[in-house]
């Protein structure tokens, strides 16, 4: 079967992105420190947009996928909050001159940017939407050499989830790394108890090494202000699984 987009099936996406209290607390606290106006870029189904709105912040959730935005709106209504929503491509967007005290790109979404032009456009667009003392904050997996060298033909079980209608689902992964583009080409295979590989998605993710991150940020006119190794504000070390970047104009 031909690969699909994970973001065309928000019901499956949400199973792979369950609530994370530490992540939510980190981003809500960062946003509260800066001011009330928040842009949640690549907001998906609203898993962070809604907690930000529940914290009393004026938040706009923005995403490229209309299916994800519709699910986010439904989730917001169910939680009795009213964030704004906008459909944008984060590589080049314009929200009509609006500026924000905090712009958030959570859950490795920045790794959907691949080329240098992608990053320049993204950071440049963010800069146009930041208030004078505003901050961009995002998280991204640190490249794992063992994962990058994984056998591209070997399927690995990455999880088991329960769907309301489909029951127990297993998700397997294959991955092939392109060292020139620094892109890890991941494919996920979803199987239910009655159908093998009923859903297959491609998920190409950029690898960003720590020494190149400040250069990518600077390509769009921003600067790296602080960097953490986890959502508890611990320092970035060789053993960190992610890099969390705080940036400004």
TrEMBL record:
Record keyword Transferase present: yes
InterPro entries attached to this UniProt entry: Methyltransf_25, SAM-dependent_MTases_sf
GO molecular function: polyprenyldihydroxybenzoate methyltransferase activity
PANTHER family (UniProt xref): METHYLTRANSFERASE
Keywords: Methyltransferase, Transferase
Domain Methyltransferase: 38-134
Name of the protein this chain belongs to: Methyltransferase family protein
GO biological process terms on file: methylation
